[in-house]
Amino acid sequence: MINKINSIAEFYILLEKVAKLRNPIFRGHSSIKYELKSSSFRRLENKYKDINKVIKNLSLYHEQLIEEFKENKYHQSKIGELTDLEILAKLQHYGAATCFLDFSKNIAVALWFACSSKEDIDGRIYILKNIQDVINYKRINSEQLKYKIENFYQDSISCEEENKLTSHFLLWEPPYLSERILQQDSIFLFSKKENELDNNELLYKVDIDKDLKKEILEILYKLFNINKKTIYKDFHGFAISHGQDEIIDFIDDGIKFYEIANQYYQVNKKEKALEFYLKALDDIGDDDDTDKVEIFIEIEKSIKELYKDIPIHKITEISSKSS
User: Fold this and answer.
1) Cα separations (Å) of 23 from 142, 157, 167, 267?
2) What is residue 160's three-state secondary structure?
3) Is 68 helix (H, G, I), strand (E, B) or coil?
4) Residue 5 and residue 11: Cα distance in Å, rounded?
5) How far apart are CA 195 and CA 41, in angstroms?
6) Is 165 in contact with 191 (CB distance < 8 Å)?
7) Separation between Cα atoms, residue 66 and residue 52, nearest integer Å
8) CA-CA to 216 of 20 to 30 Å: which in 123, 168, 192, 243?
């Protein structure tokens, strides 16, 4: 496995190598300075400055967080009462510090997170290989999902099966609690021994040159349709993708309108095709560029064909909307 991507050619080599790995999962950091630690671990480090105290208090921190959540009566959902792990997944979604390290089964998602910010610092992706390895990993099943959070952190538990949980890296694929989890193909990793993960032989680290971030983002969008809107595909994500500092990407170009119209035409959505052909015609009509003149003629032909199939009242409605 390569250690750093210094060119787009090496980016494609990485994709080829990853395709040959058995059952990997991925996580992206926008800065190589960020450590591979859960947000709750880092929050406890800020309090204690002592790794042993952090590990000792991981369970207690989450127990109290969940208890406070329940006291506020947030734990009832449309599908019934949430389990402790489901509560933590919901809290993490809204920004709370939890034990979960959010990995993805899709390398493109990890690459997006590694390249989407911190343009002046190299990014990094982490690749965990073969999560089917039962010696190192343990998947949370439907019965274990019902456990209290302390069962995953305390050694002194009588049940032998539960006791084994503390010696593994635990993996949980959360249910459909949000569109974002589904879109990011998320799988959560958590463990009492999470501080050992960063130096584990199962882990590959691949750095990404800061000067390649923008180009890689463009490739991810073209090849995988991944950008901020698709990564954060829920109401909150939609809102932040239209924040003050975000680049405006709405369509106001005749050629783009023409391309969209053709796509609608090909799938027989004639009214939408007409709407975008008329928008394209309006934008291209006054342009003397030779290529655009040819497109203008093609648009006029397409519109004439569509007029034959669309009722006159719909044509009037679409024309007023597009003008």
Assistant:
1) 21, 31, 21, 37
2) helix
3) helix
4) 6
5) 9
6) no
7) 23
8) 243
Residue 166 token pair: 């503390």
With the C-alpha atoms ordered 269, 271, 275, 277, is the resulting torsion angle positive or negative? positive
CA-CA distance, 139 to 174, in Å (whole number)?
11
pTM of the model: 0.72
pLDDT, tens only, 110-158:
999 999 999 999 999 999 988 888 778 999 999 999 999 999 987 654 5
- Using CA atoms, how far residue 159 sits from 133, 162, 169, 194, in Å, is 23, 5, 18, 22
Pairing of strands 203-208, 101-104: unpaired
Alpha-carbon distance 172 to 169, whole Å? 10
Token digits of residue 163: 């006791």
Q: In 3D, which of 118, 74, 119, 127 has the Cα closest to residue 96?
A: 74
121 burial via Cβ count (<10 Å: 0-12, 13-18, 19+): middle
